[in-house]
Amino acid sequence: MGSPVVLLDVDGVLNPFERPHRGFQRHRCVPDGRMFRLWLNPAHGPSLLDLAESTGAELAWASYWCDNANVWIAPRIGLPELPFVPIPRFPGAEQGGTLGAWKARHVAAWAESRPFVWFEDEPDATECIAAETDAAEHLLVEVDPLTGLTDEHLAAAATWLRAISR
C-alpha cells in the first residue's frame, strides 16, 4: 500500500454548476478548441495543498479534463501540475453502464492498491466505486454540483485520511 491519493473532479466540484457564493472568480478557457466558462475559487488550491501535506496524501485529477486541468484549472486556484487519471470520454449508453461506472472503473484501476479520497459529484459514483472489486480502501466525498467543494468536504477527507494512517 502506497501513500494515499486525493482525487479531484473539476466540473461540479471545483467548478459549481450554479453561480457560486463569495470567493469564486469567473474564468474563460478554451481546451481542445471549445469555450468553457468556469467559476473557480482561488482558496481551493491552498486548502487542497494543506490537506495533502497534513495527511501525507498526493493530489491528482480524476476528471474528464485530464491533463487540461493542469493547464486551465491548476494555475487559477494555486495548484502545481498534478498527475491525472486518464479517463477517456464516455462512449455513451450504447456501450452500457453509466457515467459514474465509467469513471469509477478508471479511478479504481489508476489508484491500484493506494487508499484514496475522491471528491466527485456524479450521483451514482458511490455505488459504482463500491462495485469495483479491485478498488482500494477509499472514501467517496459526494459533492453537490450546484455548490461545489466546501470546507465540510475537506474536513471529512482529512478525518478519514488521518484515521487510515494510524
How would you sum up this structure, described in words?
This protein has one domain (5-164): Rossmann fold (3-Layer(aba) Sandwich). It is of the alpha/beta class and 166 residues long. Strand 2 (25-29) and strand 3 form a beta hairpin. The strands form two sheets. Strands 4-1-5-6 form a four-stranded parallel beta sheet, sandwiched between helices. Helices cover 33% and strands 17% of the residues. It is built from six helices and six strands.
What portion of the residues fall into strands of 2 or more residues? 15-25%
**Residue runs with pLDDT of under 50 for 5 or more positions:** none
Instruction: Give a quick account of the main beta sheet: strands, pairing sense, barrel closure.
Output: 4 strands, parallel
Structural class: alpha/beta
Order of helices and strands: EEEHEHHHEHEH
What is the CA-CA span between the terminal residues? 14 Å
Helix content: 25-40%
Beta-strand segment tally? 6
* CATH topology assignment: Rossmann fold
Number of domains: 1
Query: Which word captures the global form?
Result: globular
- CATH top level is Alpha Beta
Query: In which order are the strands of the major sheet placed?
Result: 4-1-5-6
Gyration radius over CA: 15 Å
